[in-house]
Amino acid sequence: MKSIILCEGSTDFVLLQYFMRKVYGWEDKKTNEQARSKYIRYIRTMFKDADSLSIGGCGGSNRILPGFDHIMEYNSLSAESESYDKVVIITDRDECETERVFIEKLEKILQERNMKAQECVNNKWVDCLYKNGHGKECVFSLLILVIPFEETGAMETFLLNAISQNNSYDADIIENCNTFVSNIDKEKRYLTKRRYITKAKFDVYFSVRTAAEQFMERQNILKNIEWEKYIKIQKDFEKLGDL
């Protein structure tokens, strides 16, 4: 089986690789892959037995839909043995656009590609029917994960919530860090976008948690936390076990 996960940026890209290795046993053979389109900036493929799983970072929320369209084009032109059997879209809930509007845009891409799908909803696998490059009828499964499920936020919000649920002491620190970030730049000279505020809250918490190691790059922070032990992450990502 051949699968792909499309995500937004480097935080998602690094976390998903770590999670799929640690929780579901995928092996990273560190292949030197090149991004396959201008809408998928970086990609890494992992393997488990005869199956493959690619994780593609699109480079931002506004590039997820074009990245998805590129994968749909790839499936339409590919032979049955080359196409993706499962496609996962993971995006943040930190934009003003509603979940429903995002899903409607995904469904429009499917319609324009003459692909027939069940109604798409968050956190549920749906089957999509299409004809490949040889005119043969095929099916792939689509999973949409708009994270966090329960509130506006981004992947960083999701991770901080997971930590808060596991540890009340850290929950207090996170709350204080969030308050600090929300109030510190009153003139909005630096934190000019909601996305910047979200990232700053994540970084400020980890600057406290990893102070003895001085400031670490975001990727190193993500790699050094045992995310697989956090119950919320296990629960919200449990459908990735179907890959």
Summarize the structure.
With 243 residues, the protein is α/β, with parallel strands linked by helices. The protein has helices at 10-24, 64-77, 99-112, 155-166, 168-184, 194-209, 218-223, 231-236; strands at residues 2-7, 27-28, 42-48, 51-57, 86-92, 116-117, 125-131, 137-147. Helices cover 41% and strands 20% of the residues.
Explained architecture:
The protein has 243 residues and is of the alpha/beta class. Helix 2 (64-77) runs parallel beside helix 3 (99-112), helix 4 (155-166) runs antiparallel to helix 5 and helix 5 (168-184) crosses helix 6 (194-209). Strand 6 (116-117) and strand 7 (125-131) form a beta hairpin. The radius of gyration is 19 Å and the shape is globular. It has helices at residues 10-24, 64-77, 99-112, 155-166, 168-184, 194-209, 218-223, 231-236; strands spanning 2-7, 27-28, 42-48, 51-57, 86-92, 116-117, 125-131, 137-147. It has an 8-stranded mixed beta sheet with strand order 2-3-4-1-5-8-7-6, with helices on both faces. It is built from 8 helices and 8 strands, in the order E-H-E-E-E-H-E-H-E-E-E-H-H-H-H-H.
Envelope shape: globular
What is the overall pLDDT average? 85
The largest pleated sheet is described as: 8 strands, mixed
Proportion of beta-strand residues: 15-25%
**Count the helices. How many?**
8
Strands, total number: 8
Going across the major beta sheet, what is the strand order?
Answer: 2-3-4-1-5-8-7-6
Order of helices and strands: EHEEEHEHEEEHHHHH
Which stretches are low in confidence, meaning pLDDT under 50 for 5 or more residues running? none
